[in-house]
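Pilot study result, target chain (369 residues):
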Amino acid sequence: MKFSRIRAIAKKEIIQIKRDPLSLAMAFIMPVMLLFIFGYAITLDVNNLSTVVLDRDNSSLSRELISEFRESGYFSIKGYVSDDKAITDFLDRGNAQVAITIPEDFSESIKAGKTAELQAIVDGSDSNTASIALGYISAIPELYSQRISGKFKKPIIEPRPRVWYNSELKSRNFIIPGLIAVIMMVIAALLTSLTVAREWERGTMEQLISTPVKVPELIIGKVAPYFLIGFIDVVMSIVLAVFLFDVPLRGSLPLLLGLSSLFLTGALCLGILISIVAKSQLVASQVAMVATFLPAFLLSGFLFAIANMPPPLRMITRIIPARYFVNILKGIFLKGSPARLLIGEAIFLIIFALAVFLLANRKFKKRIA
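Predicted structure:
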């Protein structure tokens, strides 16, 4: 293997990239655009739940309770209704997610030391939002009742929960690092999926085959320019995550960049393999999207916990490289994980990159069919 031949192939690919402005645009603009769109669009935080109130009691205590809901920041009171039919209309039209009904004897029950009932109706069409809303609805009246009663009984056990790594429980803090893994997987594989297929379609592959360039040299030479582009994309994504989305970077930046390089190498080699097998830019790009985006988005633990998946799917996730890169990104960003805790993920990324490279080397034949 000669470095001069690898350099020549890399130089040829750089010239090709410069002549194709769409590839450059896809390489630099698309990751930023996707990070903006998904970063702001995907959120698991539940705030400002649209709420309507049916206050049958209409007392100072009931109004005070409604004020507690409003001032919590989780509920946005959209209006007051006079009967149950109006509540049904609000929920059916999607104009309200929560309806709170305060009965006529609400204040009397409180003054008599009895348990006052409070009805809350939640739109369950979005189960995640509904379950979080129910938690808020349970907590606010409990705090309110303790405050107005003035009776604070000391509990036998007093829990003092503490959240590590993401103390404010912001969904963006764990979504953005996972999103970087998904975007880099798609972009890297998509870029190199067009390289070999382009040579076949333009009729220049015959010229390459006639040269003394060996298959490993050809693959490395074609991957090298895109590795540089992918590395720049990683740096841009990290900068946006930290300075735009305010995601804390608690770990080592050199460690993050080093492990990102391993992931990029495997993703780029996967794209080359797809390009070799497909021999068509259209087919290669479509296969690259399906083979990278769906597994990285659904089976990497980016949004959906792997532990909650059925056993067959959990086994499949073990061969998804994005799963290990998501663990790396979340570990370094949020936990400040050192290298010794990420050895397992690093070893898998190395094995994956080598396996895909060797498979691409085997599939490419220096002959014309």
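One observation from the pilot: The longest helix spans residues 215-243. A full batch analysis is planned for the follow-on phase.
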